[in-house]
Amino acid sequence: MERFKLFVEADRHLEHEVLNMYLSGNHKVAEISELTGLSTGSVYRILQRHEVSPQRRAARPGQYESVYNFADSGLGARRIAELSGYSLRQVYNILAAREVQVPVDYPQTFLSNTWN
To answer: What is the pLDDT of residues 77-113, one digit of tens each?
Structure first.
């Protein structure tokens, strides 16, 4: 029974360490995982258990300006993805957040296919 108490106490200590590392803002979940030897899933579960909502990558000011500029110039989403380095899905999500509509530019091979 004494061993179990030590195990639980060590586990609590590790959870507090994970929380402190994350809440300090100095470490990302992946870094905490690497430093503690826990899987990233375990780190997320610890944070969730303590009602801490992990911040996903937040957009930096001006981060999406190139996408907005390309859309304003009339380019389609596929071309914007090629030029900006974002995936097609990311381009749609970025523009949807600002309620920007872009023309759908299907690949030429898709347009040339005939359906029987």
So the answer is: 888 888 888 888 888 888 888 877 776 665 544 444 4
Co-location of 44 and 74 in the same domain? no
CB 73 within 8 A of CB 44: no
Q: Is residue 26 part of a domain?
A: yes
Cβ atoms of 67 and 48 within 8 Å: the answer is no
Residues 36, 14: contact at Cβ < 8 Å?
A: yes
Rounded Cα distance between 72 and 68, Å, is 6
Query: Residue 90 burial by CB count (10 A; 0-12/13-18/19+): exposed, middle or buried?
Result: middle
The total number of residues shown for the chain amounts to 116
Model's pTM, two decimal places?
0.43
Number of H helices, E strands in the chain: 7, 0
**CA dihedral sign of residues 69, 73, 75, 79:** negative
